[in-house]
Amino acid sequence: MNYFSCRNWCSWLTTLSCLILVAQGKANAQQEMPIDVTSPSPFRQYDKVEITGSSIVRKEQTQALPVMVFSREDIRRTGLKNMAEVVQALPSMSNFVEPSQLGMIAGGYSNAAIHGLPAGTLVLVNGLRMAPFGRPTVVGPERSSVDLQTLPLVDVERIEVLTDGASSLYGTDAIAGVVNIILRSSRKDLEIRADLSHPKGGRGQDVSSSLSWGHGQLERDGYSFLLTLEASHRHELLGEDRPYASQSRYTFDHQGQRYAVDGYLLTPYGSPATLEQQATANSPARYFNAAYQDGQCTNQGLPMPGQIACLHNLYPTLGLYPDENNQRLHARADVLMDNGLTVWGELLWGHSQNNLAFWPWPRATSAYGLQPGSAAYAQAEQAGLDPSITRLLWRPELPALRQVSEQSNGRWSLGIKGEHGNWDHNSQLYLAQSTAKNFYATAGSSLYNTLGLTSDTTWNSANVLAPLDANNPLTQTVAGLRQLPAESSGTNTTYGLLLRGSRPLTSSENREIMLGLGLDWRQEQTRYQNERAIQVAGQPGFQASRQVLASFTELQVPVTRTWDVQLGLRTDHYEDLGQTTNAKMASRWAITPEWSLRGAIGSGFRAPSVAQTHSVETPYVWSQVSQSLNCSPEQQAIAQSLRTSSGETGICNPNAPLYVLGNGNPHLKPEKSTQLTWGLAFVPHRNLRIAADFWTVRISDALQIPSPTLIQASPNQYAANYTLLPTAFAQTYGLDPRNMGLLMSMQNLGTQDKAGIDMETQWRLPTPWGLWHVQTQATYLLKSRVQVSPGTPFVSDLGQYSEVIGTVSPRWRSRIVTGMTLPDWSLNLVWNYSAGYQDTIMGALNLSSGVYEALQRKVAPFSTWDVVFQTSLHRSVDLRATVRNLLNQQAPLSFASNVTSIFSANTTYSNLWGRVVELGLTARF
Predict the structure, then answer these.
(1) SS3 for 22?
(2) 516 and 501 Cβ atoms separated by less than 8 Å
(3) Cβ count near 501 (within 10 Å)
(4) Across the strands, what pairs with 392?
(5) Phi/psi-derived region of residue 339, left when phi > 0, alpha when psi is between -120 and 50, beta in every other case
(6) Any idea where the domains of the chain sit in the sequence?
(7) Which of 279, 287, 653, 765 satisfies CB 3.0 to 4.6 Å to 307 for a cystine?
(8) Could you give the angle at the alpha carbon of 448 between the alpha carbons of 443 and 452, nearest 5°?
(9) Would you say 811 and 778 are in contact if contact means Cβ atoms under 8 Å apart?
(10) d(CA 457, CA 461)
(11) Exposed, middle or buried by CB within 10 Å (0-12, 13-18, 19+), for 810?
C-alpha cells in the first residue's frame, strides 16, 4: 500500500503565492527583530539539548564528537534553494549521485556521501530515519540512502553533520557518519516565498515557491502548529544548450602532442542510412551516406576520414539535466500537557518527477548483400561500392527516447517527551515509506521487427535512405514506437519505535555523570514490481521483510574538570543476519580555555539491505560489459559443462556480447568497520573558532560484486560465476542461448580504507557599519583505496579515476563564505573549489602520427564564485538576488564519467549550468 500519494500541485501553489502577495501587499506586518551587530551571540547556545551522535540530553555541549552545525543563517548566506544542493555542496561530500545521473541509476535520486561513502552515510530528519530510496535492487547499484530532493528546505532550523561513524548509537548505515536535518517546530504567522532561476542562454529555468503558516508558541501558549508547502519546476537542459559539452570529438594537448578523442555516440548509424562495404584482405571497409556533400556534413556531424560519409553526433539531443517537478509538505503540532509532557505529531511528504532524454534510438544493421533492383543497390553502385558485400547502418535521428521517474517519500511520526524524576525521555513512533516508479520507452533493435528492419536481414525499404522528415512515411511510423512504455516500481517501508532516556547518576569534579539508554525497533519491508510486457530482462518482482531490534547505552564521565569521556555500546539483532555488538569511546580534553583536544575510536557495521539478501527464483540479465570472453581452455571447459533448458551444451563465443546475470545473496554478512578520529579546536574568543579533525575508517567484509576482469583472470576459482543466457532473453534479442555469460551477486569480498582531515573556521568582526564574517570548510583526503577481494592489491582512486572502482576522489574540496550583514541588507561571496585529478585512461588519436595511444591526462580544478545579496524592501518583504558561477566557468574536460549522455564532464565535481541569475521574494503577514 502507498501511504503517501498526492497530485501535482506546483502550478496552483505558485498562483496562490502570487495572489496573496498582491492581495495583502499593504497589510500590516509584524515587526522583525533587527540584527544586533554590536553584540554578537556565541556560535552555539544550548539549553539542555540533544546533539547528533549522542543520546544524552545535557545542559552543555562538550563537543567530544566532530559535529559541524550549519544554521538557517549559514544556509541563507549560500543562497542554495533545495536540500540536495545544500548537502552536496559541503566539502566533506564526494562520490554522490546528482540529477544528471538520472539515466544511470534508473530513477531520480540525489544522495549524501560523507567522505565518498554514500552507502555508509545515514540521513535523519529530526533524529529519525526516513525510508531509503524506493527502488530496491538485489544486485547492481545500491540506493540505500534517502532521496534528498524530496526533503523540505524552507523549514530547516539547522543541519548537523557528524563526520565520524556512529553505529554505536544509530546502528546500520552510519559507518561514514550522519546527516541530521533539524526542522523548525514553530513559526510566526504566514510567509510566502517565490524564486526564479535563469541560467545562461535561458534554457533550464527554475521556478519555485513556498507557503508557510504557523500559530502559537509552545512555551507561551501551550501549543504550536506549523504547515509548509513547497513546489518547484526546473526545465530540462539539453546537450544542444551547452555546445561545448555536447561535442562528439574533443581535441587537446598532452605532453606537447595534439590528440583527439571520439565519444561513443559519434557513430556512422543515422538517417539517412550509411552504406558500409565489408573489409577484405585487399582493402579496408568503405562508407557512404547522403549526409556527406562536397566535403561538408549536413547532419552537424563530422566527416569520416578518407570516406565519402559523415559520422552522426547524437549528444546534442540528449539531456544534461532532467525536467524536474518537486512538491514537499511539512506539518507539525506540539501540545504541552498539564504534567509538563510535550506531545507532538509530524508529517513529512515529498514528491519528485523527473523527465530526461536519456538514450538515442536503438540502431539496426542489415545483412551484407543488397537486393538487386533496390534503391540501396543503386546507391551503392553509384558510390562505387560492391553491393554484394555492402550493408546498411541505420538509426532514427528523432528526439531521444525518454525516461520518466517518480519518487514519493513520506513519514508520519508521533512522540512524547519531557522529564520524569531525573530522566529526560523521548519516545517516538513512526511510519516511513518511499516509492519510486520508472517509465521508459522500449529499446533494443527488436523494436523495428514490425517494420521489416530486423537486424542481419535484407532490407527492401527505400525510406531508410531518406531523412526522417515530414515527407518520409517512416517518420510517423517509427515515432509511434516510442509509445511502448515499460514500467518498474518499488516501495520501501519502515515501521519504527525509538525510546530514549538520559539522566544524571552522580557528580564528579562538581560535574554530573550522565547515563543514556535506548531501545530501537524497526520493521523493514521492501517490494519491487517489473511490469514490462515481456519480462525477459531486468529484475523480476519480489517482496521481502525483516525485523530489527536494538538496545544501546551511553555513559558520559567527567574524569576531571577539563576532561570528559563518553562510552557507547549497541547490540543489534537482525532477523535475517543475526546479532552484532559495537562499541565506541569518545573524549574531550580542554587543555586551556582556548585549546581543546577531542577524539573517538569505535567499531561499526553496515547491514546489507533487505533486497540484497533476498534471492529471486531465477537469475536475470541486468547489465552488459564492454569486454568479451577470452575463451581460454578453462573457460571452454566450463562452457561445455553447462546446459541450456533444452539440454544443449554451452559454448564460449569471444565475438558475442558479454551479458551479466544477477541475483540476491541470502548468505551476506554485515560490513564491519573501525573508526578513529582526533581533532584540535582553538577558540580564543567567541568571534573566532578554528577546528581540524583527522579521521580514518577501515571497512572489512565490504559488500561488492566481483569484477568481470577478476572472474576471467581465474576461471576455475570463479567457475560458479559462469552461466548460460536465459532462453527467453536470447530468443527475444536474437542471441544464441548457448552463449556463456557471467553470474554475479553481492558478496562480502573487499576492504576499503579512507583517511583525511576536515577543517572548519568561523570568524566574525563586529564593526560600526555591520557584522563582517568569514566561514570556511575544507576536506583534504590522505587515503582512498579499495581491495576488491582478498589477496588482490589495493587500488586507489585518490586524485585519480580508478577503472576498477569506477570512482575518483579529489584530494581537496573547500568552500569559503564571506560577507557583511546589516539590519536591512547582507552581501555574501561564496567560493567553491574542487581539486583536479588524473583522468581515466583512454585511447586517443595522435593527430601528428595518426596512431592511437593510451594516455591519462590531468583534469583541471573546478572553482566558482557566487554572489548572494539580500535586502529588506519593507519590514515584511525581503528581496534576494544571487548570481551563481559569476565568471561563467565551464566544467573542465573530463572523460571519467559513467553518464552516457555526457561525454566531456564529471558532473559530480563540476556542473554544466554556467552562469545562473536568481531572484527571490519573501513576504510575511
Answers:
(1) helix
(2) yes
(3) 21
(4) 275
(5) alpha
(6) 10-241+321-359+403-418+434-442+485-502+548-614+668-705+745-823+869-924, 616-627+641-662+706-744
(7) 287
(8) 170
(9) no
(10) 12
(11) buried
Q: Judge contact between 238 and 316, C-beta under 8 A.
A: yes
H helix count then E strand count, the chain: 11, 49
Q: In 328-355, which positions are buried (b, 16+ CB within 10 angstroms) versus exposed (e)?
A: bbbbbbbbbeeeeebebebebbbbbbbb
Here the cell at position 495 is: 515501521
Which region among 14-23, 353-362, 648-657 has the lowest average model confidence (pLDDT)?
14-23
Element (H, E) at 13: helix 10-23
Are 677 and 693 in contact by the 8 Å Cβ rule? The answer is: yes
Q: Which set of grid coordinates corresponds to residue 438?
A: 520508472
- In this prediction, residues 8-33 reach a mean pLDDT of 36
User: Rounded distance, CA 854 to CA 254, Å?
Assistant: 12
Give residue for cell 525483516: 546
| 78 Cβ contact partners less than 8 Å away, ≥ 6 residues apart | 86, 89, 817, 828, 830, 866, 868
Range 651-673 average pLDDT: 91
Indicate the DSSP class of residue 540: P
- d(CA 911, CA 89) in angstroms, rounded, equals 12
Cα separations (Å) of 413 from 127, 179, 253, 323, 347?
11, 19, 58, 32, 7
Q: How far apart are CA 814 and CA 778, in angstroms?
A: 4
Largest CA distance in the chain: 102
- Residues 297, 290: Cα–Cα separation, whole Å: 9
How do 223-234 and 323-336 pair as beta strands?
A: antiparallel
C-alpha grid cell, residue 476: 510517423
The residues, any chain, with a CB within 8 Å of residue 60's CB and separated by 6 or more, are 46
Q: If we measure between CA atoms, which residue out of 314, 304, 296, 201 comes closest to residue 247?
A: 314
Tally of CB atoms within 10 A around 646: 8
Structurally, what CATH architecture does the domain formed by 10-241+321-359+403-418+434-442+485-502+548-614+668-705+745-823+869-924 represent? Beta Barrel (2.40)
**pLDDT tens digits, residue range 672-719?**
999 999 999 999 999 999 999 999 999 999 998 887 878 888 899 889
Using alpha carbons, select from 64, 30, 213, 176 the residue that is nearest to residue 556: 64
Q: How far is CA 620 from each of CA 438, 615, 616, 668, 722, rounded to the nearest angstrom?
A: 18, 11, 9, 19, 13
DSSP secondary structure letter of residue 95: S
The helix (H) or strand (E) run that includes residue 85 is: helix 83-88
Q: Three-class SS string for 306-333? A: CCECEEEECHHHCEEECEEEEEEEEEEE
Take residue 507 and report the three cell numbers written for it.
Answer: 557528580
CA distance 600 to 916: 42
Could you report the per-residue pLDDT of 373-424, keeping only the tens digit for each?
Answer: 999 999 999 999 999 999 999 999 999 988 888 999 999 999 999 998 889 9
